[in-house]
Design brief:
alpha+beta; Uridine Diphospho-n-acetylenolpyruvylglucosamine Reductase, domain 2; Uridine Diphospho-n-acetylenolpyruvylglucosamine Reductase, domain 3; Uridine Diphospho-n-acetylenolpyruvylglucosamine Reductase, domain 1; 3 domains; 6-stranded antiparallel sheet; 4-stranded mixed sheet; 20 strands
Length: about 300
């Protein structure tokens, strides 16, 4: 481990958090330590870091707000890079196509919405209440209430695993439900959005309406990762789980929410393995009763034990 630490130090001159518990960086509040955790403050330092990690052959993973991940109890090998508040700049762009903004991947969706409302830019109100970051939202083609990030996304900046940047224009057929055809091994570091002008009061009213709808239908006061399963074609995962009688089902302190069945929540002391076991129980019950296999929407990260 000391040899790995020395190699990581050669990659990054700034602050490094060693053996940092990733539960503190996840909305589910579960997960063991990363060997090292680094939070770059700008694009240039991110590029240098990725290039150096490649040279040293050190594995790395990128997370944002941790709202769509389940981190293994045994932790994560290598370096976890967190794109947070220091990596969240928003710039207006000159374009003949309309009102365009460029947003760094670490920007929270809440901050992006605030910027849009203050600048009278509409088109993203449907993400109100989604707790993630712009990078994660693009990766997962996040959406709600009939809207998806891809509807407003013009292009992305991608960083490959050796530190090269590519700007790529996007089209509707690049995306699918909760995903897109991202080139393998590349991560999003910014997105460019095409929006349209509207009155600030109208934008805020739509955001408030979506916030009320979300508050009425989703659990409050418990750690969760948002919708846990993807909706199968023509149906809703939450409906199937509820019809299977699984609301309130628990493994340890992990529970199928009694408010919304497509939320697996941490009642306080759950670990990652509790959540994974609960996921398997839900998948098996739904498949046995309805012949539908539910695929997780969340991403599993780290050193997992073999399934028993």
């Amino acid at each position: 481990m000391q040899e790995i630490k020395e190699r990581i130090k050669r990659c990054w001159p700034g602050e490094i958090l060693w053996d940092c518990r990733l539960a503190n960086f996840s909305t589910l509040r579960v997960g063991g330590p990363a060997d090292a955790l680094i939070q770059p403050g700008d694009k240039a330092s991110m590029i240098r870091l990725i290039g150096r990690l490649h040279e040293e052959r050190i594995p790395w993973h990128v997370i944002g707000r941790g709202s769509n991940i389940v981190v293994a109890d045994r932790g994560v090998d290598g370096v976890v890079i967190v794109l947070g508040r220091a990596f969240s700049a928003i710039h207006e762009l000159e374009t003949s196509e309309g009102h365009c903004i460029s947003v760094e991947a670490g920007c929270s969706l809440a901050r992006l919405l605030h910027f849009c409302s203050v600048h009278s830019l509409s088109g993203l109100e449907f993400v109100t209440g989604i707790p993630g970051s712009v990078g994660g939202a693009i990766m997962m083609n996040a959406g709600a209430w009939g809207g998806e990030i891809s509807q407003a996304l013009l292009s992305v900046e991608l960083l490959d695993n050796v530190g090269n940047i590519e700007k790529r224009s996007l089209h509707a057929d690049d995306f699918c439900y909760r995903g897109w055809q991202r080139p393998h091994g590349k991560i999003v570091i910014s997105g460019q959005f095409l929006l349209h002008h509207d009155q600030e009061s109208a934008i805020r009213a739509r955001c408030q309406r979506y916030a009320r709808l979300r508050a009425a239908k989703q659990p409050k006061g418990v750690a969760n990762a948002g919708s846990f399963f993807r909706n199968p074609p023509g149906d809703a995962a939450g409906r199937l789980i509820e019809q299977a009688g699984l609301k309130g089902l628990r493994v340890g302190d992990a529970e199928v929410s009694s408010v919304h069945a497509n939320f697996l929540v941490n009642r306080g002391k759950a670990n990652a393995e509790d959540l994974r076991k609960l996921m398997y129980l839900v998948q098996n019950q739904v498949e046995n009763q309805f012949g539908v296999h539910l695929h997780p929407e969340v991403l599993f990260l780290g050193r997992w034990e073999e399934q028993q």
